Amino acid sequence: MDLRTLRYFVAVAEELHFGRAAARLYMSQPPLSRAIKQLEADLGASLLERSPAGVTLTPPGATLLEEARALLDRADQVRVRVAAAAGATVLTVGLLGDTTDPGAQRLAAAYRRRHPDVEVRIRETDLTDPTCGLRAGLVDVALTRAPFDETGLTVRELRVDPVGAVLRADDPLGRRDRLTLADLAGRRWFRFPDGTDPLWRAYWNGGEPREGPVVRGVQECVQAVLWNGTVGMAPLGHDLSEDLAVVPLTDMAPSRVVAAWNDGDTNPLLRSFVRIATTAYRP
């Protein structure tokens, strides 16, 4: 066994699907399958039960998952301690306008426990830059939402959230159990400023050109709904005032919570951060 193979196994065991694990590892599925089969041969045990729907862990597989996570955590700690001894003790994290996410709070606590000597600096950004300053070199890693232009970046999905339309509570549509994008046709929406990432802007506008107030932050969007009756958008589960309603959109693709960093960044503080984030954001 080596650490790389253990990372492969942990990805499959956590995703319970070879295709999703391969995408997470940025590799094709056949070599991943071969690596897991070789690991099973080396250990003399079946680790996974395979089916067309995915995989499940066998008892030996569940045991290996526990041990592999511990070994990989320890390896990350070694890298971070060596990096700290060499003077690399600061990690700058970009956050996209929502520091109340329970996943981010769990991540902060877990990272602090694992790496108390690392100083984590937070840079919170508004909704006009989904990479949170990553492209400008202002942060080492971004905790954000997709989609956006991923050129030159590595992106790890942490969670997916269903999305709803944010409306005034007295809006007739606000009393519905669910909506479609067609139900909102002709309504005024919030808009992001010109120059905002096109993929990002198109997603939050439901894939259509919209008319309405230009906003940069979450509160500006909320206030546009309250004052002007425009349509806002938000992941379900966010706490909003009693004057607002969030109605699930049945034909809106879920919002992907992701960690993003620059391709080729070998910062050991970053590797450990992403591993801990993957666990912290798991539903």
Q: Termini distance?
A: 29 Å
Work out the helix count: 8
Work out the strand percent: 15-25%
Order of helices and strands: HHHEEHEHEEEEHHEEEH
Compute the gyration radius: what is it?
Answer: 21 Å
Please state the overall shape, judged from the principal axes of the Cα atoms. globular
Q: Helical amount among residues, as a percent range? A: 25-40%
What is the strand arrangement across the widest sheet?
A: 4-3-5-10-6
Outline the low-pLDDT stretches.
none
Number of strands: 10
Average pLDDT taken over every residue:
90
Major sheet description: 5 strands, mixed
Could you say which structural class the secondary elements and strand pairing correspond to?
Answer: alpha+beta
Task: Itemize the secondary structure elements and their pairings.
Layout: H1 3-15, H2 18-25, H3 29-43, E1 48-51, E2 54-57, H4 59-85, E3 90-96, H5 102-114, E4 119-125, E5 141-146, E6 153-161, E7 163-168, H6 198-204, H7 218-228, E8 232-235, E9 244-248, E10 255-262, H8 268-280
Parallel strand pairs: 3-4, 3-5
Antiparallel strand pairs: 1-2, 5-10, 6-10, 7-8, 7-9
